[in-house]
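User: Let's play a game. I give you a shape written as C-alpha cells, and you guess the letters that built it. Ready? Here's round one.
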C-alpha cells in the first residue's frame, strides 16, 4: 500500500501506536515474501528502523497477540525460507530479536495464551539457531521451556538446541556435588564453549597453543546432555572437529617448541610478506613467501615454472580450501590461522624481481568469517612488509570438514531419530504400502536374465518394507547391483525424488552409470571429479552451462526469473562495483608514502610537542618570484622548504645552527633508528583510519558476493527440481556455503528417498548431515567388516582403545544393535573358491560361492591361484645398510626394497602369460611402498598408474622410461594402489606387497582384520602375496590371530613358498620351477615360459629368437620386431 511504501522510503516518517499495528499487519499480509524481506533489509530503505519502531510501539500482550505474532508467522512461511530469501530472513530475525523488550513481551504473550504455538515455536527455534545469546537469554529459555511443555510443533528441536546451551551447563555444574569442570566443555581457551554451536570451526591461535587436553564427549549414553538428539549432534561435531584440529594442534605445538622447519616433510615456507588485497573469488589478503632452495618450483623459471604450478604436483603445495598457520618461529608463537582461497598458477610462479630474483609464490588468504572490522584492520597493518613469519600448511583437507561441521551446527533435529538415535525398530515405508514387492522382484529377475538367490530377495523385501533399511554385503555379493535395482524399482513405481550418496567419486560414477544403462536418464550428478565420459552430459556443471546458453549472455533475462530477482541482481552488482572502487582507492591510499604535510597535520592534532620541534618556526612565508611557490623564511632570513627539519631529523642530524638552541630535547634526542621507528609508528597511526575503512568495505564486499552467490541457488534448484535422481558424495551433500549451497537446495527440492552406498565407510557425522528433513526412506548398503571410515587423528579410532570409537559408522552401529533388523547377502560372485575360502574362514563363515566362480579359468603360468611368496629380507628401517630414521616416524612411509624388486619381476612374469596390464593390480598397505613400486615398474618399462585417491597423496614422477624389452607394448598400465583406496574395486590378478619384515613382529596397518579382509577379497582369479610369515606370526593381538589362521591354512594346502612357483604353459610336462631370485626370473623364465628356446619359424623365415614364451604364440607381433639381416640375391647373383 501507499502507507507501507511511504514508511519504508520516507526517513522522516514517524509511527504512532496505530501506525505500528498497521505496518505489522500489512507486512504480515504482503504477498511476495522475497520482496518483503528485501524491502525490510535494503540499506537504501528504512525497513529495519521502521520495523524496530513498530515492535516498540506497545509491549502489551494484546498488541503482540494481534499484531506481532501474525508478522512472525508470516516470516515462517515456506516462501520466506527458499533460496535468496535465507540471508534476508536471518537479517530480519536478528533485527526483531534485538529490539528492547521484545523477548520479555513475547514470553508474556505465550504465557497468557495457548494460541499461535506454531509461529512462536518456529521463531523461538530460528532465533536460537542463529544467535548464541538467544540460547543463554533467560526470557528465551523460559519461552522455550513453555513451548516444550505444551508440545508445540518444534518442541523436540527446541529441546535439542537448549539442552546443549551454556545456561544448561551452569545449571548442571551447580547441581553437581563434585567439581565437574574438567569433564565438561568450557574455559580452557577462547574457543572452548559448552554450546558447540558457538564454536568457531577454524581453530583460534589460543586454542592451538592451549596445552590442556581438549574436552572430548563420552558416548551418548554417558553424556552430561540429557537430550539424546542434542548429545548425538554435540558428540559428532566435537569428535569430527578434533579429527581435524588434533593433528594440527600437535604439529604446530611441536614446531613452535622446536623453533625450526616442520619435520616429516610438512609444507612450510619462510619470509612471508603481505603484498595487497584481492577480491576474487572472495576478499583475501595476498601473501607471498620464499620457497626452500631445493624445492622444484624454486629452480624453474618462465614457462617451465608456469607449467609446474598448473600441474597436480605444483597445486599440491597450496591447495585451495586448505588451512595454513602463520608462525613466528623465532618467537615461538602462532600468529594467525587462515584459509587459502586464491592460488592462480601465474601468481604461484612469481619471482622477487626487486631483490634476489628468488621464487616467491603468491596466494590469497582469508581469515575467520566472523572477524569484525577492527580485527581485520589489525591484520591489514602488515601490508607491504616482509616478516619473519612462516606459512605452514596444517590441514589440506579442511574443505572436507568445514561443510559437515557447519551443517551439524545448524541442525536442530535428526531425521528418523527413533531409529538412528533411540535405537527403536524401524517403522514402515508407508509410501510403498501398495507395492507388490514379489511381483516387482520377478520383473527385475526377468530384466536381468537370472534368478536372484534367497538372500537377495530377502534383502530387497526388507529394504522396501522399512523406512530405515540396512543391508550387509560381504565382498563380491553385489552390493552395488542391489542398490541400483532398489533405486530403479522406486523410480519406476513412485514419483519420489531419490538422492544417491557414495563416499567416493568412483563409486558414484559406477552407480549412476548403471542406472543410465537401465534407461533411467532423468539424472544429475553433482560435484567435480567425474571420470566417466558417459556421465558428462548429466553433470550439474553441464546442465548449468546448458541453462546459461538458453538464457544467452544474461542469466537473469529469462522469463523464469522474476522481475524482483532481476532488480535485486542489478542492485547487488551496482553495490559490488561501488565497493570495488572504494577498495581500489583505499588500497592506493595505503600503499603510498606519507608526505611531511600529512605527518605534520597528524602531529599537530595528536603530538603538539613533536609538531613544534619538527616544523620550521619561520617568521613569514614568501612567494618565489620564478615558481610562485611559498617557502619558509628562517630566523636569519634564509629560505627553507617546509620539510627541512623533518628531513634532517630522519637523516639522524641535529636541528642545525639556526635552531640548535631551540627545544633540543624530545624527538631530537632519539638516535637514528629510534627516529625511523617513531616515523613508522606515526605512518601506521595515520593509515589506521584507511585500514578500518578498507576492512569495513571488504566485509561488505564479501556480504554482497555471498548474496550474489545465493542467487545462483535458483539455477541449482531449477535443475534439481526437474531431476528424479540426484547423485553426489556424502561430503558434497553437506555443503552449505555460498560457493556450494547444495545442502540448502536439497532441503528445498524435497528429497524423499536416500540411498547410501559404501555406508560402512562413511562417518556417522557425514551420514547424518546428508539426510533431509522431509525424508521418507533411508537405504544403507555396505559391509562393516571391511575398512572403517578414515580418520586423521589416531586416538579417536577403535584401534586406540580409548573409548571414542569415532570411526564406527552409523551403518556398523545399527548392524551391531541386537534389536535392529538387517538384510545380508550371502552369495559371492567375484572370487574363485580357492580365494574366497580365506575370508570365509576368518570373517564370513556362511559366505557361499556363486556358480559362476566355480568355472573361472585357472591362472596361467603358476601352480596355484593363491600363493604366498615368503622371505626374511628386512624392511628398510631395519636393513643394516640403511640409516634412515624417517621410516620410524612416518607410519605411511614404510618401504621394503626387496619386495619392490620382486613385485616388478612378478608383474613382468604375469604379463608374459598374455594377461593385459588392466587385469593386474598391485596392492600395498603403505604409500611409501606404492611410490617405490610405481617408480620401479616405470624403470622396467612396465608402466603404472594410480587411482584418484592415491594420486591425491603422490606427486607426479618424472623418471625416464627404461629401455624397451621383449615384452610387447600394451595400451594400458598396471594399477598400483594402497589397500585402503582399492576398497570397493576388484581385478583378475592381485599382487600384494605386505612390506613389514622385522624381528619385533611390528606389522602396523596389517594388524587390522578389516584391512586384511579387503586385501584378500579383491582378486577374481589369482592372489599373490609377498611378505614375511615370521613377522606376521609374531604380531600382537588381533593381527596375530588373523594372520596365523590364514598362514596355517595356506601351509596346509602347500601355498607358501620361498619364491614364485612357476609352470610352463607351453610344456606342461615339465616340473614347476621356483623363481626365488631376480636372476632366476632372468635366466629360468626370461620370456615367461621355460628355459627351452622357442625355435618357431617366423614369416620372414628366421627362427624366433626368444626363449619359450606363452604370449604371442602365433608370432604375429614377434615377426614385426624381427631384426635379423635377410640375405637376398639379384638376377646377376650379387648379394
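Assistant: Ready! My guess for every position:
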Amino acid at each position: 500500500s501507499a502507507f507501507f511504501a511511504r514508511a519504508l522510503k520516507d526517513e522522516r516518517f514517524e509511527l504512532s501506536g496505530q501506525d505500528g499495528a498497521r505496518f505489522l499487519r500489512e507486512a504480515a499480509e504482503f504477498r511476495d515474501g522475497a520482496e518483503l524481506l528485501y524491502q525490510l533489509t535494503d540499506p537504501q530503505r528504512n525497513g529495519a528502523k521502521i520495523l524496530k519502531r513498530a515492535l516498540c510501539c506497545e509491549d502489551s500482550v494484546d498488541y503482540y497477540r494481534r499484531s506481532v505474532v501474525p508478522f512472525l508467522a508470516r516470516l515462517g512461511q515456506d516462501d520466506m525460507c527458499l533460496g535468496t530469501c535465507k540471508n534476508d530472513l536471518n537479517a530480519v530475525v536478528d533485527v526483531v530479536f534485538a529490539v528492547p523488550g521484545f523477548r520479555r513481551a513475547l514470553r508474556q504473550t505465550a504465557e497468557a495464551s495457548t494460541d499461535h504455538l506454531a509461529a512462536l515455536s518456529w521463531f523461538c527455534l530460528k532465533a536460537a539457531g542463529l544467535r548464541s545469546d538467544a540460547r543463554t537469554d533467560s526470557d528465551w529459555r523460559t519461552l522455550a521451556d513453555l513451548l516444550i511443555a505444551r508440545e508445540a510443533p518444534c518442541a523436540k528441536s527446541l529441546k535439542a538446541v537448549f539442552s546443549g546451551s551454556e545456561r544448561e551447563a551452569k545449571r548442571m555444574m551447580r547441581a553437581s556435588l563434585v567439581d565437574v569442570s574438567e569433564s565438561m566443555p568450557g574455559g580452557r581457551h577462547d574457543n572452548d564453549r559448552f554450546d558447540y554451536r558457538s564454536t568457531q570451526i577454524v581453530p583460534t591461535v589460543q586454542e592451538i597453543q592451549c596445552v590442556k587436553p581438549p574436552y572430548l564427549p563420552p558416548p551418548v549414553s554417558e553424556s552430561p546432555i540429557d537430550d539424546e538428539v542434542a548429545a548425538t549432534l554435540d558428540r559428532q561435531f566435537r569428535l569430527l572437529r578434533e579429527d581435524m584440529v588434533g593433528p594440527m594442534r600437535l604439529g604446530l605445538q611441536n614446531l613452535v617448541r622446536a623453533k625450526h622447519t616442520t619435520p616429516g616433510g610438512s609444507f612450510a615456507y619462510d619470509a612471508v610478506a603481505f603484498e595487497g588485497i584481492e577480491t576474487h573469488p572472495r576478499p583475501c589478503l595476498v601473501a607471498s613467501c620464499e620457497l626452500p632452495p631445493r624445492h622444484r618450483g624454486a629452480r624453474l623459471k618462465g614457462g617451465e615454472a608456469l607449467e609446474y604450478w598448473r600441474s597436480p604436483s605444483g597445486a599440491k603445495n597450496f591447495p585451495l580450501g586448505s588451512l595454513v598457520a602463520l608462525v613466528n618461529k623465532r618467537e615461538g608463537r602462532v600468529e594467525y590461522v587462515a584459509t587459502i582461497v586464491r592460488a592462480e598458477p601465474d601468481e604461484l610462479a612469481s619471482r622477487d624481481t626487486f631483490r634476489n630474483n628468488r621464487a616467491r609464490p603468491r596466494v590469497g588468504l582469508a581469515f575467520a568469517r566472523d572477524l569484525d572490522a577492527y580485527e581485520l584492520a589489525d591484520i591489514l597493518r602488515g601490508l607491504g612488509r616482509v616478516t619473519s613469519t612462516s606459512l605452514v600448511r596444517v590441514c589440506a583437507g579442511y574443505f572436507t570438514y568445514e561443510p559437515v561441521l557447519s551443517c551439524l551446527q545448524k541442525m536442530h533435529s535428526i531425521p528418523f531419530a527413533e531409529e538412528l538415535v533411540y535405537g527403536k525398530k524401524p517403522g514402515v515405508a508407508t509410501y510403498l504400502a501398495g507395492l507388490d514387492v514379489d511381483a516387482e522382484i520377478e520383473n527385475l529377475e526377468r530384466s536381468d536374465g537370472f534368478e536372484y538367490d534367497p538372500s537377495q530377495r530377502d534383502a530387497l523385501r526388507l529394504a522396501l518394507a522399512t523406512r530405515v533399511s540396512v543391508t550387509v554385503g560381504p565382498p563380491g555379493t553385489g552390493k552395488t547391483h542391489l542398490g541400483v535395482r532398489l533405486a530403479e524399482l522406486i523410480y519406476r513405481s513412485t514419483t519420489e525424488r531419490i538422492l544417491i550418496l557414495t563416499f567416493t567419486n568412483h563409486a558414484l560414477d559406477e552407480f549412476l552409470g548403471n542406472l543410465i544403462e537401465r534407461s533411467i536418464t532423468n539424472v544429475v550428478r553433482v560435484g567435480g571429479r567425474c571420470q566417466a565420459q558417459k556421465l558428462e552430459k548429466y553433470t550439474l556443471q553441464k546442465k548449468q552451462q546448458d541453462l546459461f546458453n538458453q538464457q544467452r549472455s544474461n542469466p537473469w533475462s529469462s522469463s523464469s526469473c522474476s522481475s524482483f530477482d532481476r532488480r535485486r541482481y542489478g542492485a547487488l552488482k551496482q553495490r559490488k562495483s561501488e565497493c570495488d572502487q572504494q577498495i581500489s582507492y583505499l588500497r592506493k591510499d595505503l600503499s603510498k608514502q606519507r608526505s611531511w604535510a600529512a605527518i605534520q597535520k597528524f602531529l599537530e592534532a595528536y603530538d603538539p610537542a613533536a609538531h613544534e620541534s619538527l616544523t620550521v618556526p619561520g617568521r613569514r612565508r614568501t612567494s618565489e618570484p620564478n615558481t610562485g611557490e611559498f617557502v619558509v623564511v628562517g630566523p636569519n632570513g634564509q629560505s627553507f622548504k617546509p620539510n627541512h627539519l623533518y628531513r634532517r631529523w630522519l637523516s639522524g642530524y641535529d636541528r642545525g645552527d639556526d635552531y640548535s638552541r631551540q627545544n633540543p630535547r624530545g624527538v631530537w634526542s632519539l638516535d637514528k633508528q629510534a627516529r625511523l621507528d617513531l616515523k613508522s609508528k606515526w605512518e601506521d597511526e595515520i593509515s589506521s583510519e584507511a585500514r578500518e575503512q578498507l576492512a569495513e568495505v571488504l566485509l561488505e564486499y564479501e556480504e554482497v558476493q555471498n548474496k550474489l552467490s545465493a542467487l545462483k541457488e535458483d539455477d541449482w534448484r531449477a535443475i534439481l527440481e526437474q531431476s528424479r535422481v540426484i547423485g553426489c558424495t556424502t561430503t558434497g551433500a553437506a555443503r552449505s556455503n555460498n560457493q556450494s549451497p547444495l545442502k540448502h537446495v536439497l532441503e528445498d527440492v524435497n528429497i524423499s528417498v536416500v540411498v547410501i552406498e559404501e555406508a560402512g565407510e562413511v562417518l556417522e557425522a557425514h551420514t547424518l548431515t546428508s539426510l533431509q528433513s522431509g525424508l521418507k526412506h533411508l537405504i544403507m548398503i555396505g559391509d562393516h567388516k571391511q575398512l572403517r571410515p578414515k580418520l586423521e587423528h589416531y586416538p579417536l579410532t577403535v584401534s586406540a582403545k580409548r573409548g571414542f570409537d569415532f570411526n564406527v559408522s552409523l551403518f556398523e552401529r545399527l548392524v551391531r544393535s541386537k534389536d535392529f533388523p538387517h538384510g545380508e547377502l550371502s552369495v559371492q560372485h567375484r572370487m574363485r573358491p580357492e580365494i574366497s575360502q580365506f575370508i570365509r574362514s576368518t570373517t564370513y563363515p556362511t559366505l557361499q560361492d556363486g556358480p559362476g566362480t566355480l568355472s573361472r579359468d585357472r591362472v596361467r603360468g603358476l601352480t596355484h591361484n593363491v600363493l604366498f611368496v615368503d622371505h626374511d629380507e628386512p624392511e628398510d628401517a631395519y636393513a643394516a645398510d640403511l640409516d634412515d630414521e624417517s621410516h620410524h616416524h612416518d607410519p605411511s612411509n614404510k618401504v621394503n626394497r626387496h619386495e619392490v624388486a620382486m613385485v616388478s619381476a612378478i608383474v613382468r612374469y604375469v604379463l608374459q602369460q598374455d594377461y593385459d596390464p588392466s587385469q593386474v593390480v598391485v596392492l600395498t598397505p603403505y604409500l611409501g611402498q606404492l611410490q617405490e613400486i610405481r617408480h620401479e615398474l616405470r624403470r622396467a618399462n612396465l608402466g603404472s598408474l594410480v587411482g584418484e585417491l592415491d594420486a591425491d597423496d603422490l606427486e607426479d614422477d618424472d623418471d625416464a622410461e627404461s629401455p624397451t624389452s621383449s615384452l610387447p607394448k600394451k595400451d594400458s598400465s598396471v594399477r598400483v594402489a594402497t589397500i585402503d583406496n582399492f576398497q570397493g574395486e576388484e581385478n583378475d590378478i592381485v599382487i600384494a606387497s605386505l612390506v613389514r619384515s622385522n624381528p619385533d613382529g611390528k606389522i602396523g596397518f596389517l594388524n587390522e582384520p578389516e584391512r586384511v579382509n579387503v586385501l584378500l577379497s579383491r582378486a577374481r582369479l589369482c592372489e599373490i602375496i609377498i611378505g614375511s610369515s615370521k613377522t606376521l606370526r609374531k604380531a600382537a593381538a588381533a593381527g596375530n590371530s588373523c594372520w596365523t589362521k590364514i598362514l596355517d591354512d595356506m601351509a596346509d594346502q602347500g601355498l607358501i613358498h620361498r619364491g614364485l612357483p612357476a609352470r610352463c604353459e607351453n610344456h606342461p610336462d615339465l616340473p614347476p620351477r621356483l623363481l626365488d631370485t631376480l636372476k632366476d626370473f632372468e635366466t629360468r623364465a626370461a620370456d615367461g615360459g621355460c628355459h627351452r628356446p622357442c625355435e618357431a619359424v617366423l614369416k620372414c623365415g628366421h627362427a624366433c629368437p626368444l626363449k619359450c614364451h606363452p604370449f604371442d604364440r602365433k608370432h604375429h607381433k614377434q615377426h614385426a620386431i624381427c631384426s635379423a639381416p635377410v640375405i637376398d640375391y639379384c638376377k646377376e647373383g650379387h648379394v
